[in-house]
């Protein structure tokens, strides 16, 4: 995979730069800038190289139709302030654009094309749409790892027609993920949460052969408690998952990987309730399990202390209510303490996990925090991502 950072002569080259700027918008305002902050380095790198930067990205799901509420305009304005450079947003139909018409003014350095998903050809991975995109530039850079699990025109097909490179963020993401998949320092632990165990079974089974410990928390741990014969009251639990849980334990035994699940829990009668610590044999029919208890937190801390690498994906509880956020916060604090002492390599990912770290202002205290969502999870499952395959 060729990397843009290794290219020496980018002076005046027109660079088609695919970014993921799919940030949450509310009434035209950006409510979370995490993804924007991550792409500033590649823009600054290309500015320093005196490239002409043609950015393509998307927001939301316009389904191939123009939607003024999903314009890139507020994102362009946000980036303009961050880099102190004028950005031109072209709203004209892409098919009316020609390479020679772009950057006519010598002072123009950054042009954004409007939301690429306004065009049906994008999500259909249309070869003619991809070819036209490629004809607008001299070379292509994918710095949107978080979109690279999508077989879309601006991610995959475009690489058939133009010299293509990995961007800075994409390279950073892959290097971080290699440290928890192929270039591992052991002991290595995965702390995995979320609501449904069925959506994470692929990840768990793919990690077990290489991991020493898998710690299962959050709603998905309720299925394990139920499998072990404990009542989970009216807690979130998937139906017909015993075979999945049995498979996890059998696979873990085969590879000598330890599986951990809650020893005690915090419950409430509703998600707005106060928390109450309960042993597993004390849970009543009207209880909702909404966080891990103090014994479980202590066990997880001990596991982290003995680890050299930690992957964290998914909260330990219903962190939206502060009464049930303690488990997730204590996990974060323990990892951060080890990080600051340079005793651990830590990777966190998943929307809710990132939300917790933002909440306690700890994103920068992990070695790597992925905002990639689906691409992050599919990579952990061992799947080949179309966008990465296209660059190779």
- Could you name the CATH topology of the largest domain? Rossmann fold
Q: Specify the CATH class of the largest domain.
A: Alpha Beta
Write out the strand line-up for the largest beta sheet, numbering strands in chain order: 5-6-4-1-7-8
Please mark out the parts with pLDDT under 50 across 5 or more consecutive residues, or reply none: none
Give Rg in angstroms. Answer: 23 Å
- SS-derived structural category: alpha/beta
Helix content: 25-40%
Overall structural domain count: 2
The share of residues in extended strands comes to: 15-25%
Q: Which geometry do the CA atoms define?
A: elongated
Query: CATH superfamily of the largest domain, called what?
Result: Phosphoglycerate kinase, N-terminal domain
What features would you describe in this structure?
Helix content is 32%, strand content 17%. The chain is α/β, with parallel strands linked by helices and 392 residues long. Helix 1 (34-48) packs across helix 2. The chain has helices spanning 34-48, 73-83, 120-123, 127-134, 168-178, 201-207, 221-227, 242-254, 294-305, 326-340, 351-359, 374-380, 386-391; strands at residues 14-18, 25-26, 29-30, 52-56, 87-90, 110-113, 139-142, 164-166, 188-192, 213-216, 258-260, 264-268, 276-279, 288-292, 309-313, 345-349, 368-370. It folds into two domains: 4-170, Rossmann fold (3-Layer(aba) Sandwich); 179-380, Rossmann fold (3-Layer(aba) Sandwich). The longest helix is centred in the N-terminal third of the chain and has 15 residues, at 34-48. It is built from 13 helices and 17 strands. The strands form four sheets. A six-stranded parallel beta sheet has the order 5-6-4-1-7-8. It has a six-stranded parallel beta sheet with strand order 11-10-9-15-16-17, sandwiched between helices.
């Amino acid at each position: 995979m060729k990397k843009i950072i290794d290219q020496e002569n980018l002076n005046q080259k027109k660079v088609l730069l695919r970014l993921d700027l799919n940030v949450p918008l509310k009434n035209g305002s950006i409510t979370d800038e995490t993804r924007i902050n991550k792409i500033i380095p590649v823009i600054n790198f290309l500015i320093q190289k005196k490239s002409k930067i043609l950015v393509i990205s998307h927001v939301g799901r316009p389904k191939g139709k123009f939607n003024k509420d999903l314009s890139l305009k507020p994102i362009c304005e946000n980036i303009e302030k961050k880099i102190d450079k004028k950005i031109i947003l072209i709203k004209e139909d892409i098919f009316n654009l020609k390479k020679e018409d772009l950057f006519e003014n010598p002072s123009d350095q950054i042009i954004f094309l409007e939301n690429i998903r306004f065009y049906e050809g994008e999500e259909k991975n249309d070869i003619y749409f991809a070819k036209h995109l490629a004809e607008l530039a001299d070379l292509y850079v994918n710095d949107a790892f978080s979109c690279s699990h999508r077989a879309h025109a601006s991610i995959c097909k475009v690489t058939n027609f133009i010299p293509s490179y990995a961007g800075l963020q994409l390279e950073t993401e892959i290097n971080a993920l290699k440290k928890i998949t192929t270039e591992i320092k052991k002991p290595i632990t995965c702390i995995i949460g979320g609501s449904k165990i069925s959506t994470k079974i692929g990840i768990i089974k793919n990690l077990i052969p290489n991991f020493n410990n898998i710690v299962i928390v959050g709603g998905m741990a309720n299925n394990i408690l139920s499998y072990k014969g404990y009542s989970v009251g009216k807690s979130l639990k998937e139906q017909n998952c015993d075979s999945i849980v049995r498979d996890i334990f059998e696979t873990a035994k085969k590879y000598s990987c330890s599986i951990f699940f809650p020893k005690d829990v915090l419950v409430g009668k509703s998600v707005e309730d106060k928390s109450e610590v309960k042993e597993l044999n004390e849970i009543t029919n009207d209880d909702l399990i909404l966080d891990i208890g103090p014994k479980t937190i202590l066990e997880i801390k001990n596991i982290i202390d003995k680890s050299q690498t930690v992957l964290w994906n998914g909260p330990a509880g219903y962190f939206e209510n502060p009464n049930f956020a303690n488990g997730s916060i204590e996990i974060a604090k323990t990892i951060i303490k080890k990080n600051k002492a340079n005793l651990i390599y830590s990777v966190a990912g998943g929307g809710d996990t990132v939300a917790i770290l933002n909440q306690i202002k700890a994103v920068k205290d992990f070695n790597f925090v992925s905002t990639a969502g689906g691409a992050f999870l599919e990579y952990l499952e061992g799947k080949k991502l179309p966008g990465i395959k296209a660059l190779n």
